[in-house]
Write a structure and sequence with these properties.
This protein is an all-beta fold. It has 4 domains: about 120 residues, Macroglobulin (MG2) domain (Immunoglobulin-like, Sandwich), CATH 2.60.40; about 90 residues, Sandwich (Immunoglobulin-like), CATH 2.60.40; about 110 residues, Immunoglobulin-like; about 100 residues, Immunoglobulins (Immunoglobulin-like), CATH 2.60.40.
Length: about 500
């Protein structure tokens, strides 16, 4: 594997017939890492004369400037990648330098400076324990690895490794420890009655923590599962109680559960509505049942907007019983529509594209449902009907040739019933609106790359769809071709 490369992208575009400024200058990747290799990508276009191009990395002390590119260009365009070794910062850790670009010709005189940061990569030390929590009397086993500037394990001795107790007292230390194949293996036996709390291991300025606790694991644990939310229109609710031993085996036993809807404090005479459920866990250690919602009358406004559940699991043969509780919110919002991949501007004459997403209150996508899209532009109102796909989405493409001024889009699923009684909770369906303004540019030109969606694989070619309008005045006199330049760079953290 080669050394990592820092990419510094420089893009200049010069229009034929001009004598001074380029249309644009882009410099990205503002940090260069020593001692890795850097790359400068230079692109010039539409040159109508011979020019001399110079790209220099200049630092505080002038004599140490690095010439990255120095050449005479006779062709109408130039596209070249220049690799160079990133210099060490003069300040030790980092240094601010300048990238100086100069283009000289008979009619063209151009100079531009951009700041970049030179940063020195420092070796790192990592400490890892075999567990995060220890009991008294156990042995703490840990490893230390130091990486050099090229991320290779270092064989240099560690001058000092220490362990501190929760009070900060040094209870163990190792001096001049020599790594074996780049790794140091150490251990520390804990006493039968050590201080409880958080301990620290320190090496080469790096600290790693572990805990010592007197803990007793329960023989088994019980979980109670309810849906994230239940709507006022839901007819059933799935309740699931599971028991599992700490080593993973399912628990066989009897389950008793109570599901209640409590009255609001303002209506104490209503009384709580409850249902009791009993059953036996199956071979997976779980008991599941569909609970009918009709007895709870979820649309009545005199009750709290949440269901409370209490469950017991009694282990078969021992009678050991564990209890678990959980609640589930009741919502009146049944579903909602939201716009996705829909710009806030439009260009008249260029199709406007986007998506509508339909989700249920619990977050699940609703497929094969009809959505309406209302479009208002001036005095003109139109609507179209779309069907959601497996992901709950409906894609649309709108003709903008007649659009002027502000345009309103509204995604709609179902109509709300406004005739509900005063003591009833009415179900609702949330629409989404998007207000679009016409795209403006001084040149009257427009360019949009349609979103491909999701994460793009690195090992596959992608087909881009571009919508554009280029004003004749922006092309200049005598232009016979139009050149598009795509600059692709990875996102930070990828």
């Amino acid at each position: 594997m080669g050394a990592p490369v820092t990419c510094l992208l420089l893009l200049l575009h010069l229009t034929a017939g001009t004598s001074a400024e380029p249309h644009y200058v882009v410099v990205s990747a503002a940090e260069l890492y020593h001692p890795h290799t850097g790359t400068v990508s230079v692109h010039l276009g539409d040159l109508n004369e011979t020019v001399r191009v110079s790209v220099r990395l200049e630092r505080g002390d002038g004599p140490s400037a690095i010439t990255l590119l120095e050449r005479e260009v006779r062709e109408p365009r130039l596209h070249e990648n220049v690799r160079f070794q990133v210099p060490a910062p003069s300040g030790g850790q980092q240094e601010v330098a300048e990238l100086h670009v100069s283009i000289r010709g008979d009619a063209l005189q151009f100079s531009e400076r951009k700041k970049v940061l030179l940063r020195a990569l420092q070796p790192g030390t990592f400490v890892q324990t075999d567990k995060a929590v220890y009991k008294p009397g156990q042995t703490v086993k840990f490893r230390i690895v130091s990486l050099d500037k090229d991320f290779v394990p270092s064989t240099r001795k560690l001058p000092l490794v220490t362990v501190q107790d929760p009070s900060g007292n040094r209870i163990a230390q190792w001096r001049d420890v020599t790594p074996q194949q780049g790794i140091v293996d150490l251990s520390l036996p804990l006493s039968a009655e050590p201080a409880l709390g958080t301990y620290g291991i320190e090496a080469q300025g790096t600290r790693h923590s572990f805990s010592v606790e007197e803990y007793v694991l329960p023989k088994f644990k019980v979980t109670l599962e309810l849906p994230p939310v239940v709507t006022v229109l839901d007819e059933t609710l799935l309740l699931r109680v599971c028991g599992r031993y700490t080593y993973g085996k399912p628990v066989l036993g009897r389950v008793q559960a109570i599901l209640c809807l409590e009255e609001q404090q303002a209506y104490p005479w209503y009384g709580a509505r409850c249902t009791e459920l009993t059953g036996q866990t199956d071979s997976n250690g779980c008991f599941s049942t569909e609970v009918e919602m009709a007895p709870f009358n979820l649309t009545h406004s005199g009750y709290e907007m949440s269901l409370q559940a209490l469950a017991f699991l009694m282990e078969e043969g021992t009678g050991v019983k564990l209890t678990v509780t959980k609640s589930c919110d009741i919502v009146s919002e049944i579903a909602m529509v939201t716009f996705e991949d829909a710009d806030k501007t439009y260009k008249a004459g260029i199709p406007y594209t986007g998506k509508m997403l339909l989700k249920a209150a619990g977050g699940s996508a609703l497929k094969n449902e009809k959505l309406q899209l209302f479009v208002s532009s001036g005095d003109e109102n139109k609507n179209q009907t779309f069907l959601t796909d497996e992901s709950g989405r409906a894609s649309f493409e709108l003709d903008t040739s007649g659009w002027t001024g502000w345009v309103t889009l509204r995604g709609h699923f179902k109509q709300v019933n406004d005739s509900a009684e005063h003591d009833r909770v009415s179900p609702s369906y949330w629409d989404d609106e998007r207000y679009l303004k016409p795209f403006y540019s001084k040149s009257q030109s427009f360019l949009k790359i349609r979103w491909l969606g999701g994460r793009l694989p690195c090992d596959q070619a992608q087909q881009l769809q571009v919508d554009y309008v280029i004003a004749r005045e922006a092309l200049g006199n005598g232009s016979r071709s139009l050149e598009f330049i795509f600059l692709v760079s990875p996102s930070l953290g990828d």
